[in-house]
Amino acid sequence: MQQGTLMRKVKSKSWKKQRYFKLQEDCMTIWYLSKRTGKTESAFSISDVETVREGHQSEVLQSVAEEFPPERCFTIVFYGRRGNLDLIAGSAEEAQCWVQGLRQLIEPKSFPLTSALVSRTWIRDWFQKADKNKDGRMNFKEVQRLLKMMNVDMNEDHALRLFQDADKSESGTLEGEEFVLFYKALTQREEVLSLFQEFSEDGKKLTLLELVDFLREEQLEDEGTEELAMELIDKYEPSETARARHVLSADGFLMYLCSLEGSIFNPQHRALWQDMSQPLCHYFISSSHNTYLIEDQIRGQSSIEGYIRALKRGCRCLEVDCWDGPNGEPMVYHGHTFTSKIPFREVVSTLGKYAFKVRHPSPGAGGPGWVRIHGSGGSLEEEWSCWPPAVQDPREQGPWRHWVAQGASLSPTPQELKHKILLKGKKIGRLEDTLDGPGDEAPDMSDDDNGAEAEEERRRAKVRTQYGSALQKDKETVAQALSDCVIYCKNVPFRGFQEAHSHSRPSEISSLSEAKARKLIRDEGSEFVRHNAWQLTRIYPSGMRTDSSNYSPQEMWNVGCQIVALNFQTAGMEMDLCDGLFSQNGCCGYVLKPPFMRDEETLFNPSDPSSWEGPSPITLTIQVISGQQLPKVANSKEGAIIDPLVRVEIYGVPADQAHQETKYIENNGFNPHWDETLQFQLHVPELALVRFVVEDYDKTSRNDFVGQFTLAFANIKPGYRHIHLLSRDGTSIPPSSLFVHIRITE
C-alpha cells in the first residue's frame, strides 16, 4: 500500500487511534501519520528496536483482549526507557507481515566495521542523515554537516580533498559508490594498518605463518594457533583469491580485530563454561529488587514489563509483592505505597513465558529461576492453577526427596534444577512436613529478619504519615499450597553466624538490609565468607532508597553473598557491575564463586587479603590506543563535538579499588587517539571487575557520560582488542568502540 498500512496505535483501553505505518525505502526508518490530518506524527529507526512481541504481551493489549484477537496484536519494544508501541493490525496476515519483517531487520549481526568492510546498512544510515534535501546526492555542504554529526572537527581543506578524491564523476556531488569511497577514506585506521605492517613482510598481506606469529606473540594464543589462523582467514578475509592462498589482507585483519574473536571479552566465556554441578550457595545469582516497579518506590508504575526486561537481562531471582485486591483477586504492587497495581495472574503468565529467555541465550543454559513471594497471599490458593508447570509441584520434578533423605547437608545444584522455578518465602512448619504430611509443630511464620522488618516498617510508617491514614498494615497469611512449594529457600531470621551454624539448614535463607550487611562485613568479614560457603544470603536496598537508586553490589559479592538484589530499572555504575559479572557463562544468571569462597574453613577476609595465603598480586597493564565513532552526548547542542577521555575503574576487594584516566582529546569523537598506558595491581583478581568509561570532558561542570563496558577480570582476553561500548542502559551503541592493548603479568 503506497501510503502505508493502516493500524491502530493503542495507549489504553479507551485510547485507540488509527495511523498509517510505512517502512521507508532505506529499510532503516518507519514513519506513521495521522489518518485524520495526513501529517507525519513521528518516526523511529530500526536500530532503536530491541524486539517485537506477538499477541497480548503488554498490559495495554491485555486490556483489549476481548475486543481484538491476539493474532492481530503485536508490541514493538525499544531499547532504553522509551515506551513500547502497541499496535493492532487489520488482519492476522498484516500483523505477521510486520512482525516477521521487523524481526529480520533487527536480527543481531556481526559488529559493524570501520573500513571498506563497513556494513552498507551503516553507510546508508549516515547518507540518509546527511542528505538534507533527499535528492540521493551529497554536496560538500552536506558533507560538512555529516562530519559534525559524526563527531568530527576536520579542517575544511582536508575535508574538501577527501570529497574531491571520492567525486570520480566530477559532478560536485557524491552518490552510490562515490560515497562508499568517501566513507572508506574517512574511516581509515592508521593505528591498525601500522600494526598490520609490523608483522607483514611486504606490507600488503599476512601469510599464514605471519598471522600465527601475531596470534602467539601479541594475542597470546598458545593452543591450536595454526588452526585458529586458518579459521580467521576463512571467516574474515573478503577476497576469495586471498582466502585460496591462505593469506590475510589489511581489510581482513581489521575485520578480525573488530569481531567477537578480537573483542576484549574472551569468546569462550560467553558460552556456558563453568561447572554447574556445585550447590546453589556456591554461585553468585543475578537478582532484582521489587521487579515489578519500573520507576520509583512510592508512586512509580508497576508493570509486567519490569519482569520481562529483568528476565531477558539474565536475572534469575525476582520479587512478587502480592496483596488482596478488589473482589479478593490478588494484585502485585509495593504494599502501603501509591504505586500502580497489576493482577497477580498477569505476572504469573509473564513468568511462564519469559522465565528462561535471555537476550543472548547459550546452549545448555537455563539455571533455575527464583521467585520471592511476599505479601498477604490470602487468595493465592484460588489462583494456584495459573502457575507455570515448572513451579506447580517441584516435589514431583526436582531431586528434593533424595536430597531430604540424605540429610540436606548442602543445597541442590543448578544443573539438577535446570528449567525449574523455585519459590522463596515463608513456610508453614518444617521441610520434612511437606514430604510426610503436616505435623503438630506450630507454624513457623518468621519474616526475613528482625532488622529488615523494623526498617521496612519505619519506611511504611513514614509513608502513612506523609500520605494519610488510609494506608493500613495488612495481616499477612500464607496459602498452604504456596507454603508446600517453598522447599529450597525458606525465609528465616538472621540471629548471628554462630546461631546459624548451630541451627540453620542449607534449605534456609536470610535477608539482610544493605546497612546490616555492611556492618557484618566490617566486623565479621571472615565469618560472613564462611557462612556464605554453605548457606544462602539475600541483600536488599535500604528502604530509604525511594528513588530506586542502588548500592554497590561489589562489597556484598566480596564476602560471597549470593542473592544481591538491585533495582534493575535504574541505570548506573551499580547495574553496569551486575551486567558485567553476569554477561559470562551463557548469560544464565549464575557465576561460580572462586574456590576460596566455597570452602567452609576459609580464612579469606576481603578487608585484609594478606591474612589469606593466596597467590601473589598480578599487574594489569592497559594501553588505551584509540576510539572509533563515539556517540554524541544526549541533548547536546547542534554541531557540538565531544572532548573524550577514557577512565578505567577497578572494582573488587578494598585493596584493589582504583581508577585512572587518560587526557582528553579536543573536538574529536570520531577517531580520537590517546596512546596512554594505565597500570593496576590486583591482589584478588578472582573478584575484580574492570569498567571502561568514556566521558565528554567539561572543565566547568561534571563530565558527561558517553559510553561504557564492564567485565569480570577473569573474562579479559589479552592482546590487541576492541571494546564495543554500551549505553547508560546497557544496550549496544554500534559502531562505537575503543582499541586497546592488554597485558597481564605476575
Automatic annotation (TrEMBL):
Q: What class of enzyme is it?
A: hydrolase
Xref: PROSITE patterns: C2, EF_HAND_1, EF_HAND_2, PH_DOMAIN, PIPLC_X_DOMAIN, PIPLC_Y_DOMAIN
Location of the PI-PLC Y-box domain: 482-598
Domain PH as annotated: residue spans: 1-107
Q: What is its main location?
A: cytoplasm
Q: Which superkingdom?
A: Eukaryota
Q: Topology relative to the membrane, per the entry?
A: Peripheral membrane protein
Swiss-Prot/TrEMBL catalytic activity:
a 1,2-diacyl-sn-glycero-3-phospho-(1D-myo-inositol-4,5-bisphosphate) + H2O = 1D-myo-inositol 1,4,5-trisphosphate + a 1,2-diacyl-sn-glycerol + H(+); a 1,2-diacyl-sn-glycero-3-phospho-(1D-myo-inositol) + H2O = 1D-myo-inositol 1-phosphate + a 1,2-diacyl-sn-glycerol + H(+)
Its localization reads: Cytoplasm; Endoplasmic reticulum; Membrane; Nucleus
Q: Which residues form a coiled coil?
A: none
**Required cofactors, per record?**
Ca(2+)
Region of interest: Disordered: 430-467
Q: Which UniProt keywords apply?
A: Calcium, Cytoplasm, Endoplasmic reticulum, Hydrolase, Lipid degradation, Lipid metabolism, Membrane, Metal-binding, Nucleus, Repeat, Transducer
Where does the EF-hand domain start and stop, copy by copy? 118-153, 154-189
A GO CC annotation given for this chain? plasma membrane
EC number, UniProt record: 3.1.4.11
Quote the biased-composition stretches of kind Acidic residues, using this chain's numbering: 434-455
UniProt entry tagged with the keyword Repeat: yes
Q: Which CDD domains match?
A: C2_PLC_like, EFh_PI-PLCdelta4, PH_PLC_delta
Alphabetized InterPro entries for the sequence: C2_dom, C2_domain_sf, EF-hand-dom_pair, EF_Hand_1_Ca_BS, EF_hand_dom, PH-like_dom_sf, PH_domain, PI-PLC_fam
Q: Does the keyword Glycosyltransferase apply?
A: no
Biological process per Gene Ontology, one example term: lipid catabolic process
**GO MF annotations for this entry?**
calcium ion binding; phosphatidylinositol-4,5-bisphosphate phospholipase C activity
Specify the C2 domain's residue ranges: 598-727
Q: What is this protein called?
A: Phosphoinositide phospholipase C
